[in-house]
What does this fold into?
Amino acid sequence: MEIQRIGTFTLGWGERLVWDERRQRLYFVDCGALTLHWLEDGNGDLSTVAAPSMPTGIVPTEDGRLVVVLADGLHLFDPDSRSWEMLAPYPDAVGGRCNDMCADPVGNLITGRLNLLPGEGSAWWYSHADGWRLLDPDIVNTNGPQAAVLGGAMTLIVGDTAAHYYRYAYDPTTGAVGDREVFGDVTELDGHPDGSTLDESGGLWCALYGGAQLARFTTDGLDQTLAVPTSNPTDLTFGGPRLDRLYVVSTTGDEELDGTLLRIDCLDHVGRPEPRFRVA
It folds into this structure.
């Protein structure tokens, strides 16, 4: 395993890494600076765009744009023209703004309430055709959502920073979910659930905020942990031409590499292409 820093920049509050395999581009945000960034081929010069408000989630679309979670709703961003367009305001029942986000295998979105302090929260499903639907009314702070076939069944994963990573039986065409169960139990681990990504074998890689480590969970439970040289990892994703590089972002802190972009090589795991939002 090899860990190296990418670039010389430092992020105040790095979040939501996404690898666009079509453009061979790594996207991420700095929530504190209200900026969206990308690196061609996961290296090179840093491109930066100011967001209209704090960006917390990114999902690529089928037409080459991005869906970005902002303060007042979901917005479409065109990286070629660098223009923004409102996609959908949040429903009143969210009671605030949303945080992390992913697309499911058929092109719908999963996101949920952002709470920086303990409070009431919820997880939500969004379809361009059918709008918003409530998934779980009891998620304090939504982080690391993922949807895929795991253990032979279509499964939704939703992390709650105040608790664990949960799983649900999931119908992506309707947004219907089954009973909630714990998928990634962090009781005995340092840190709190933050962003996540899936590898091609169905392993869920998780950034444990405040724990200076990553964890990989499977349907059998905790598979491994991996120490990282940053106190507060916030998100991670596989990238590179073969999806065999694991990128990690974090927040600033007391450690030398806090707030930097890290790349981990030689993990013996590869990722999966990021599911895309289907724009009508």
In short: Residues 171 and 224 are 29 Å apart (CA to CA). The chain is about 0% helix and 50% strand.
